[in-house]
Structure formats: structure tokens, C-alpha cells
Design brief:
The chain is an alpha/beta fold and 304 residues long. The protein has 10 helices and 11 strands.
């Protein structure tokens, strides 16, 4: 079980108990602003593939993701900018790849890439939809990747009770001097969506705690980028408003009218880059004044 008397990012012994949320005790480190949740049942949190394979939101997203371009978001674009500009990265392993959309994106850009996710339904759909048979898998043993130049994990570590364990496991697949790119929600976000609570999310990282986390895993921080997106803020707020709070899904309840919700999702996915462009000057201004929403990306290099 997680040690609740010590911060998992900065090792501080001073931890604030913020009470109980969804049968999880909520802790916050005042030193680095890291937050984490501890199950009251005294058992390790059972974050397994069934939790995601049986979730209505994750299953529904598979139905409307036929074009992989529609799933590429700000964090993926920032990661690709680094990969493309680095010049030393030829092979990439994408962890928590969902249905392999980023793997397909990288391969179409000329990079050798592979993906792993324990969600078997998503892997099956991605193999068929994106022609990724043999390139994405539900276990690293099945995939057997060689040592890679870069490992990416988008919106993964906030779901785990033991994220250091994951990074330690991935370390053997990354070359010495290779790069680790992580993204996760920014704890300084201006509005917190229903999905940023347990059992969906078990940790909340500030840029400071995220940097300390990767340093304690044996990496040197190269850069940290923080997002401000009015488009994502408006979309997530509206999405939360139209959900049925009495139902249960990992992202905050089923949509009241799924047909309309799916139509709007498809339109917004297709228009994402246009909205990013239109809102860009406003996003930059808000970012300058300290507003953040929703993601952050850290790039780090393996040093031991």
C-alpha cells in the first residue's frame, strides 16, 4: 500500500489530509502541491483492464474514432514537435496507447513506433481500424520491443497508484540517454472536470511535483510545457453539464442523449485544430496571466 506519511514525489514528511472523496482519502503535499488518493478499504486499488473495458465512455469513444487524426491532441503535438526536432529519435514506444492512434500517427510520419495498453477492446479496434497488427499489444511481453530511443505515456500516470513502478518497468525498454515524454492533467487547472477524481484519477501533479517525480525515477528534466486551451475548457465543461450524474462512468456519468453527444464529438474532433488556431491568441494571453487548462507535458532524458 502507498505510504501516506510521505510525498511520493518530493519525499516530504509533511502531508495534509483533505478528507474523503468517493471512498478514497485525499492527501496533499504542501511542499510540491502533489495530491494523491488512498483507498479506504486497505487494499491496493484494483486498476485493471476490466475497469476500462467495461466503461461506457471508453467503449463509446471507440465507436467514433475511425480517423486517428481526430484523437490527436495538444500533448501529442507537443511530443511530436520534440521527437521531430531532436534528430536522434527513430523508435518510439507509446504506453497507454489506447487504440494505437499515436502509433499510427508516428508511423505515417516515418518513425518506427509501437504501442502497449491493457485495454484489449481498444487494442483490437486499433489493429483493425489503423492496420496495426503486430505493432500494438496488451502486454509488453507480447510486443517484445527492442530498446527504444523514446517512450511516451500520455495521460497514464494519474491513473496509477504506483506510477514509479511503471517507470521502473519501462526503463529496460529505453536506451541509455533515451527520452521519456509524459503528459498528465495540470493540478493548477482553472476548472476541475468530474473525471479528475478517483477511481479514474488517483494522483494530481503540479509542474513542480511532476519534475520531482521523473528526477527520482532517474531522469533529467529537459522541458515542461503547460497548456491553456479555451477550446478544451469549454468542451469539457459543456460535456459535464450534459451528463447524467446519477449514472456511473469513469468520466462522470453517461450522456443523456448519446446520439447528439456522439454527433457533437465527431464535429469537435474534426474541428479541434481549427479551434486551437482561432483561440490561440486568447490562450496565449491567459497563459501569460497564469491560467492553465488542462494538460502538461514533461520531456526527460534517462541518466542512470
Amino acid at each position: 500500500m502507498r505510504n501516506t506519511s510521505q510525498c511520493p514525489c518530493c519525499d516530504s514528511q509533511i502531508i495534509n489530509d483533505l478528507g474523503i472523496v468517493n471512498d478514497y482519502r485525499h492527501f496533499r503535499c504542501p511542499s510540491c502541491s502533489h495530491e494523491f488518493f488512498h483507498a479506504l478499504s486497505k487494499k491496493e486499488v484494483n486498476i485493471n483492464k476490466e475497469l476500462y473495458e467495461q466503461d461506457a465512455d471508453y467503449n463509446n469513444d471507440l465507436m467514433i474514432s475511425k480517423d486517428y487524426h481526430d484523437l490527436i491532441q495538444w500533448n501529442h503535438l507537443k511530443a511530436f514537435d520534440f521527437i521531430k526536432g531532436n534528430g536522434k529519435i527513430d523508435t518510439v514506444l507509446d504506453v497507454g496507447t489506447y487504440n494505437g492512434f499515436f502509433v499510427r500517427y508516428l508511423r505515417d510520419k516515418g518513425l518506427e513506433s509501437y504501442g502497449y495498453d491493457f485495454n484489449g477492446d481498444a487494442i483490437k479496434q486499433g489493429r483493425e481500424a489503423y492496420d496495426l497488427n503486430g505493432l500494438i499489444a496488451t502486454s509488453l511481453d507480447e510486443l517484445k520491443p527492442e530498446q527504444c530511443d523514446c517512450i511516451t505515456a500520455f495521460e497514464v500516470i494519474e491513473h496509477l497508484e504506483w506510477p514509479r513502478k511503471l517507470v521502473a518497468e519501462l526503463d529496460k525498454y529505453l536506451k541509455n540517454g533515451g527520452y521519456l515524454i509524459l503528459s498528465c492533467p495540470n493540478n493548477a487547472m482553472v476548472w476541475r472536470p468530474p473525471l479528475d477524481y478517483p477511481p479514474h484519477h488517483l494522483s494530481r501533479y503540479s509542474p513542480t511535483s511532476l519534475a520531482l517525480f521523473v528526477e527520482r525515477c532517474g531522469y533529467e528534466v529537459i522541458s515542461i510545457l503547460e497548456q491553456m486551451s479555451l477550446f478544451d475548457l469549454i468542451r469539457n465543461y459543456a460535456g459535464a453539464f450534459f451528463r447524467d450524474k446519477s449514472s456511473v462512468t469513469l468520466k462522470g456519468g453517461r450522456f443523456r442523449n448519446l446520439r447528439v453527444a456522439n454527433y457533437l464529438k465527431r464535429v469537435l474532433n474534426k474541428s479541434r485544430l481549427i479551434f486551437y488556431f482561432v483561440f490561440f491568441p486568447f490562450d496565449r494571453l491567459l497563459h501569460f496571466f497564469g491560467f492553465r487548462y488542462i494538460s502538461q507535458v514533461i520531456v526527460a532524458q534517462k541518466i542512470r
